[in-house]
Amino acid sequence: MTDGDVAAFTHLGSTVRGALSERGFSRPTPPQQLAIPPLSAGQQTLVIAPTGSGKTETAMLPVFDHLLEDPPEGFGALYVTPLRALNRDMRERLEWWGEYLDLAVDVRHGDTTQYQRGKQAENPPDVLVTTPETLQAMLTGERLRGALQDVSHVVIDEVHELAASKRGAQLAVGLERLQDLAGPIQRIGLSATVGDPDEVGQFLTGGRPCEIREIDVGSNIDVTVREPEITDEDERLAGELMTEPDTASHVRLIRNLVAKHESTLIFVNTRQTAEALGSRFTELDLPIGVHHGSLSKEARIDVEDRFKAGDLEGLLCTSSMELGIDVGRVDHVIQYQSPRQVTRLLQRIGRAGHRQDAVSSGTIVTTRPDDTLEAVAIARRARDGEVEPAAIHEGSLDVVANQIPGFVQSRGSTPLCEAYETVTRAYPFRDLPEETFREVVSELHRNRIVWFDESEDSLGATGGTWQYVYANLSMIPDEESYEVHDIASSTQIGTLDERFVVNFAQPGEVFIQRGEMWRIAEIDDEECRVKVSPIEDPAGEVPSWTGQEIPVPAAVAGEVGEIRAVAEPQLSAGADAGAVSRELAHRYPADEYTLTEACGQLERQLEAEAPMPTVDRLVLERQGRTIVLNAPFGHMINETLGRVLSSLLGQQAGSSVGLETDPYRIELEVPTSVATSDVLAVLEDTDPDHVEAIIELGLKRSDALAFRLAQVSAKFGALKRWQNAGSGRLSNERLLAALEDTPMYEEAVREVFHEDLDVDRASDVLERLQSDELELVTHRGRTPVGQGGRSSGKELLAPENADASVIKTVKERLQNDRIILLCTHCTEWQAKTKVRRVADQPECPDCGSTRIASLNPWADEVVQAVRAEEKDDEQASMTERAYRSASLVQSHGRQAVIAMAARGVGPHNAARIINKLREDEAEFYRDILSKEREYARTQSFWD
């Protein structure tokens, strides 16, 4: 070992160096080598290094050293993490050091007991691990504020995650409030990956000087992109899983990769995919667990511990597992479908190879051409360190509104200029005009959240200040959860977020839940309940709403457009997809089969004599009322252009225009009166400087803006005032009209533009089109590339197999339904049983008759009617129904029992179902479903 190898440790005192030897740290890890010197010198520092490379110790060893040198009376250091699960991990990780060095380490978050909080206030630990929200609460407590005056160091873990959110903007102000209390504080940021280190460093320090210490993450990863080839084994597996062979091939590949490694994380992009894949692994009895945010805390801890102990070989997980939760050593990471962003790929693949100098290995399993080309572009960009910048929320006014009551609660009467000065020291608010700040204060005054004395220019508390502060510690929006109920059976099948219901849900719309597809029948806002029925042809429908997708950045989508541009001349010159793929393999990390499958789509585009959409050529195609603009610009630019098109074409036609966007296409459903030339005219004639105004005009009537406005105005304390002025829940129209000229409306619009749209670059696209720098060509009919997006808006695992999944579910449900069997010959024998226990040809054990009626389990009145000697009209009708049922069972046996067990299917409909000629059993259950849906739609007329 050279002197250089241990040079970083020489910056630490003898006690900490002794702890290093005891802990087995013989030499520093790369981030420790780079970052311990400036940290020991007290400099503000951003440390960027892979997960598992010792970032925590990098930050904390110099902090421990300083605390030993100058013991604090209150809290000496805060370690702030975005997740409570990380709190738990950090305490376990830091406790050993604390015990050895005789420094107290403790955790405080929302679940910390009142007793424990009291102990921390009386006897503050030297190091407190906490969350951004708990820090907000601590800043207002009198005894805790006293203890916070001793803080000399703050470590922010996963700083890139916070920088791009309103939680981070709130924390940035919180750190300035802490600095007002404690004086200069050393701020240390930790992150696995950052696209713009300098700006994230400025965010961390409030614009003060910041040392950047970065390990090149891209050179430390080994990623392969693979689309599995369908084999005979997949055909067999498809039958076993009741799914399609291509999905079976994905399951097989993932299963084989898990088997080849000791411990594998399998990242997916949605919780729904995690559940759908998890159910298939459960059917195969594989030791693979599921981990996502909708599971209970206990369930998550259980699978984390089982994975760490080696009881599980794989863990299916979503983005929450990106953030360094300790699950032990991971030796491989699988990403199912494109990770959408370079940042996410680096975060996820970085979980593998938790040894010093180890390469993180990973496989991206792709499912279709768009997916593959996007994944290889991301993998190439990750290798070359081309990471997206963090999108910092600049000047979010609801965060300002959230922080002002905190000032007043903690400080008492406060000059407005002091509050403004502290807020604008925080990096996201450095350009906030004082006039805007005053408008926010005035709104809070109107809502009685704070008192604003304009003559003294000072802020004070009101009766509502304390209640507001503690009800609004978090910038994570409170959302209602709507229960989803099957209208036919009244059983709950899941929940939906309020955002989904407000932005999308209306009767007739289709969505996926629990791996199945449902059509919305009715929405009850008072009860927060959505009633649904399974849809008629789930295999053939694409959901109209795909959830909050991870947006694909313009640079990634643009590289897909570049790949097409490279392939086009080769294919035109006679090369086949295989030859092009061999050329691409020199630049992109994928096998020949995977690249050939992706290039096959491009080959088919030219065979169809259709122009190739590239980064420099847009293709407008039309068939009937469907118009698709092929534009590889990413989600946000395409969403912006799509809104301009739908808004202006809708105004021109006098009716609404349907819009769906993905990173490569803008799809419009237009009235027949809209000509293709009208679309071209909008693109060629719309002033690029008017894009923002056109979209804002369209937003004024939108439910999406109303939803955001409701959340923002709640942070201003305004929503309650407007609700009290009216009667209960405000309609979207009233809310938008009432708040239009307020800072709340301004913030809601800013948030939509920040999170969903990219006005500047969409305007640039129009400028390039109008200056002929960007080519625009048209094509009559649909093209292979244009139709490639039809599957991009759905989870492959769910809709594609929803038919098989739904049929299987219905079959199991009917088999387990209870029924009454009644002999209509002797009328004495009856039995209550499950459908699956009924014989192929049921008969009465008393008299031997096969005239057995199959009745609903609650049909006791029918039994009484059959047995009655004298019958009124109603009883006669019930008896007739029982006899028809018995006749059907006598003729068709158990098949009739199954059909009549269905919801709303009586003997008449059951006979029609049974008498229909069909090729397989699935058709039988499909017909039952159809009748159940018909009953569900008309139930209200019969009830």
TrEMBL record:
<dbReference type="GO" id="GO:0016887">
    <property type="term" value="F:ATP hydrolysis activity"/>
</dbReference>
<dbReference type="Pfam" id="PF00271">
    <property type="entry name" value="Helicase_C"/>
</dbReference>
<dbReference type="Pfam" id="PF00270">
    <property type="entry name" value="DEAD"/>
</dbReference>
<dbReference type="GO" id="GO:0005524">
    <property type="term" value="F:ATP binding"/>
</dbReference>
<dbReference type="InterPro" id="IPR014001">
    <property type="entry name" value="Helicase_ATP-bd"/>
</dbReference>
<dbReference type="InterPro" id="IPR002464">
    <property type="entry name" value="DNA/RNA_helicase_DEAH_CS"/>
</dbReference>
<keyword id="KW-0347">Helicase</keyword>
<keyword id="KW-0238">DNA-binding</keyword>
<dbReference type="InterPro" id="IPR017170">
    <property type="entry name" value="Lhr-like"/>
</dbReference>
<dbReference type="GO" id="GO:0140097">
    <property type="term" value="F:catalytic activity, acting on DNA"/>
</dbReference>
<keyword id="KW-0227">DNA damage</keyword>
<dbReference type="Pfam" id="PF19306">
    <property type="entry name" value="WHD_Lhr"/>
</dbReference>
<dbReference type="InterPro" id="IPR013701">
    <property type="entry name" value="Lhr-like_DEAD/DEAH_assoc"/>
</dbReference>
<keyword id="KW-0067">ATP-binding</keyword>
<keyword id="KW-0378">Hydrolase</keyword>
<dbReference type="InterPro" id="IPR027417">
    <property type="entry name" value="P-loop_NTPase"/>
</dbReference>
<keyword id="KW-0547">Nucleotide-binding</keyword>
<dbReference type="GO" id="GO:0006281">
    <property type="term" value="P:DNA repair"/>
</dbReference>
<dbReference type="GO" id="GO:0003677">
    <property type="term" value="F:DNA binding"/>
</dbReference>
<feature type="domain" description="Helicase C-terminal">
    <location>
        <begin position="253"/>
        <end position="398"/>
    </location>
</feature>
<comment type="similarity">
    <text>Belongs to the Lhr helicase family. Lhr-Core subfamily.</text>
</comment>
<dbReference type="InterPro" id="IPR001650">
    <property type="entry name" value="Helicase_C-like"/>
</dbReference>
<feature type="domain" description="Helicase ATP-binding">
    <location>
        <begin position="36"/>
        <end position="212"/>
    </location>
</feature>
<dbReference type="InterPro" id="IPR045628">
    <property type="entry name" value="Lhr_WH_dom"/>
</dbReference>
<keyword id="KW-0234">DNA repair</keyword>
<keyword id="KW-0413">Isomerase</keyword>
<dbReference type="GO" id="GO:0004386">
    <property type="term" value="F:helicase activity"/>
</dbReference>
<dbReference type="InterPro" id="IPR052511">
    <property type="entry name" value="ATP-dep_Helicase"/>
</dbReference>
<dbReference type="Pfam" id="PF08494">
    <property type="entry name" value="DEAD_assoc"/>
</dbReference>
<dbReference type="InterPro" id="IPR011545">
    <property type="entry name" value="DEAD/DEAH_box_helicase_dom"/>
</dbReference>
<protein>
    <submittedName>
        <fullName>DEAD/H associated domain protein</fullName>
    </submittedName>
</protein>
